[in-house]
Amino acid sequence: MDRVDRILHVLDEMFPAAQCELNHTNGFELLVAVMLSAQTTDKSVNLLTDSLFQKYKTPQDYLDVDITELQNDLRSIGLYKNKASNLQKMCKMLIEEFDGQVPHRQEHLETLPGVGRKTANVVLSVWFGVPRIAVDTHVERISKRLKLAYEKDSVVKVEEKLMRKIPRDRWSKTHHQMIFFGRYHCSARKPDCRDCKLIDLCKYKQRYDWQDQSE
């Protein structure tokens, strides 16, 4: 079993039902939730959108309030002022350019204010069912630790390498599994190396062996 097959096998064992953890009932809510999740935990976003999505149901709803009111509604998460501004700009463009509907093409999604490649990939994968690998901080960290990409690689380069190495029909599933692996097992500061089935493939194996022997 080669490196990639081994990694995919372990991910299947650990997180067989991994999926998007951002609460949403339609594509527009998902788009908003992913935009709000930048540098913020999914848990914090879900706590916020539980009430936010009751108040704001359409793109026009976000434009019908003063920016200060929207900022206040987003105050519980980081970068709320910038996110409020991007939300209103995004909603304005959705209405003017896309008849208020979330576009299903990547090049169109990426024209929306506040929507980058990662956000577009998440929306395409989760809502439209298009095979994609969205590289967030977890996916980037895990890819580099497991030597699927180089430390110097950009986010786009990491995405390209993962798409080459992982079968297309597994892209979306593996994306979520890698997020779960990074969020619940191989965290940035305190990875669970002792109980990791992939430690022998990890670039930090030597450091782990040293720490283990010193205890």
Features:
215 residues, mainly alpha, Endonuclease Iii, domain 2, Endonuclease III, domain 1
Fold topology:
Elements: H1 3-14, H2 27-36, H3 42-55, H4 59-63, H5 67-73, H6 80-98, H7 106-109, H8 117-126, H9 137-145, H10 155-165, H11 171-184, H12 205-214
Q: Mind explaining what this structure looks like?
A:
It is a single chain. This protein has 215 residues and is mainly alpha-helical. It has 2 domains: 3-13 and 134-214, Endonuclease Iii, domain 2 (Orthogonal Bundle), CATH 1.10.1670; 27-126, Endonuclease III, domain 1. It has 12 helices and no strands. It has helices spanning 3-14, 27-36, 42-55, 59-63, 67-73, 80-98, 106-109, 117-126, 137-145, 155-165, 171-184, 205-214. Helix 1 crosses helix 11, helix 2 (27-36) packs antiparallel against helix 8 and helix 9 packs across helix 11 (171-184). It is elongated. The model has no long low-confidence stretch (mean pLDDT 94).
